[in-house]
């Protein structure tokens, strides 16, 4: 008997990360922790290999009453003070002049998911990067959407032309266009667009939107680990000049910002020139929220609001320690990769560095060979992801050269 609808994708989920995480765990048991490089885990880990849960975040969380933790949120859109705080946190620094509204979502995942559901009709196409967080494609499939991928890079910089080509392909072919830009701190390459690149993207989209409305979904999941935090939102100033036919929806996630992945808290920040456009999107997305998850954890929202108001300085100081650590690790890896000629995609900041292997079959062989040397990484499209977010400084040292040597062995047979 088949109880599941015909159109559903019945193949089991291939969780490429989880499977390798398990292999790394096994290896640690058999050959000893010191002989294993585990660069698989995509969360922040400290130097002793422990998951990082910020003290400033969870000390506050622990003080929240059981009643608050147990209660429903005030609204399907999210608690009012949380929504205000998210608006300020995301758009405030850039002094955005756009009209905006916030819908609380279960993590950044929830935000990306309702945008894909509510902007496009089934069988329409969403534009995503060719090297990307795997959930974009998964969500698209789940919603009956096709994907069109833009090449992330051309030589050592973002491939704006490829993004333009994708937009061009869809112009006039569907009622609206939705494209995802995961920036800054792109997962998995660590690229961040320059001000100039953003300016060009917005200029192009403004022009293109004259025939077809365009929604830019800007996924900022890792923004709070930008190395130049004080200027991390400057690029959003470019959004101020979006045309009437353009909407920007920012997918914000508390998971990384607060090391609270399990509390399932995030938001979709809807921005446009007109109040009416924002309100239209808000109405529909609030209904989707109510239909899918109803409301998100009350205490997680309160915690974000309280930590970023009452404990802001301590929180930022604690987070900065880890940004510095991330920088120390990535500096070592990138410098050593450059020295030994291990090609990586343009890395500026963020949780991951990705080794550039455009030939996917070769990359798969290489991925296996790395594991044979007890170096565990995640295979992504055209690359090998090294999670510097969870790799200690000690384990990072010398890793690029080892990886380069293994690559040479694979290439030379
Ligand atoms: C690029 C990107 N966007 C969004 C998310 C969403 O995370 P969450 O739903 O936990 O906020 C992730 C998580 O890994 C991510 O890597």
Summarize the structure.
With 413 residues, the protein is of the alpha/beta class. It is built from 15 helices and 14 strands.
Provide an overview of this structure.
The chain has 413 residues and is an alpha/beta fold. It has two domains: 137 residues, Alpha-Beta Complex (Aspartate Aminotransferase, domain 1); 239 residues, Type I PLP-dependent aspartate aminotransferase-like (Major domain) (Aspartate Aminotransferase, domain 2, 3-Layer(aba) Sandwich). Helix content is 44%, strand content 16%. The chain contains 15 helices and 14 strands. Strands 2-10-9-8-7-3-4 form a seven-stranded mixed sheet, sandwiched between helices. The chain has a three-stranded antiparallel sheet with strand order 11-14-13. The protein has a two-stranded parallel sheet with strand order 1-12. Strand 5 and strand 6 form a beta hairpin. Helix 4 crosses helix 11 and helix 5 crosses helix 10. The chain starts with 15 loop residues before the first helix and ends with a helix. The chain binds pyridoxal-5'-phosphate (PLP). Pyridoxal-5'-phosphate (PLP) binds next to helix 5.
């Amino acid at each position: 008997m088949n109880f599941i609808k015909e159109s559903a994708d019945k193949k089991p989920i291939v969780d490429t990360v989880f499977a390798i995480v398990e292999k790394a765990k096994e290896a640690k048991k058999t050959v000893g922790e010191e002989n294993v490089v585990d660069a698989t885990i995509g969360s922040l880990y400290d130097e002793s290999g422990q998951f990082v849960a910020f003290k400033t975040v969870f000390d506050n969380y622990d003080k929240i009453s059981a009643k608050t933790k147990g209660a429903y949120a005030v609204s399907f859109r999210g608690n009012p003070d949380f929504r205000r705080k998210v608006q300020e946190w995301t758009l405030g620094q850039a002094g955005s002049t756009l009209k905006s509204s916030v819908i609380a979502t279960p993590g950044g995942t929830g935000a990306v998911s309702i945008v894909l559901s509510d902007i496009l009709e089934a069988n329409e196409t969403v534009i995503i990067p060719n090297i990307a967080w795997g959930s974009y494609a998964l969500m698209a499939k789940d919603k009956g959407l096709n994907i069109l991928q833009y090449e992330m890079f051309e030589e050592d910089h973002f491939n704006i032309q490829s993004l333009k080509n994708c937009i061009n392909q869809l112009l006039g072919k569907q009622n609206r266009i939705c494209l995802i830009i995961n920036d800054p701190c792109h997962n998995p390459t660590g690229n961040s667009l320059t001000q100039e690149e953003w300016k060009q993207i917005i200029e192009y989209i403004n022009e293109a939107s004259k025939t077809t409305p365009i929604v830019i979904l800007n996924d900022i999941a890792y923004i709070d680990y930008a190395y130049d935090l004080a200027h991390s939102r400057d690029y959003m100033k470019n959004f101020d000049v979006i045309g009437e036919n353009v909407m920007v929806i920012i997918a914000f996630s508390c998971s990384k910002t607060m090391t609270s992945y399990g509390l399932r808290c995030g938001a979709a920040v809807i921005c446009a020139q007109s109040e009416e456009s924002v309100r239209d999107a808000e109405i529909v997305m609030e209904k989707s929220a109510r239909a899918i998850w109803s409301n998100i954890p009350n205490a997680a929202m309160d915690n974000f609001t309280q930590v970023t108001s009452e404990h802001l300085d301590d929180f930022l100081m604690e987070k900065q320690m880890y940004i510095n650590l991330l920088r120390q690790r990535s500096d070592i890896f990138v410098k050593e990769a450059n020295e030994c000629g291990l090609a990586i995609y343009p890395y500026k900041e963020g949780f991951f560095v990705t080794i550039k292997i455009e030939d996917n079959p070769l990359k798969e062989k290489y991925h296996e060979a790395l594991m044979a040397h007890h170096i565990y990484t995640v295979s992504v499209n055209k690359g090998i992801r090294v999670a510097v977010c969870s790799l200690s400084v000690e384990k990072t040292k010398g890793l690029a050269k080892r990886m380069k040597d293994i690559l040479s062995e694979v290439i030379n047979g």
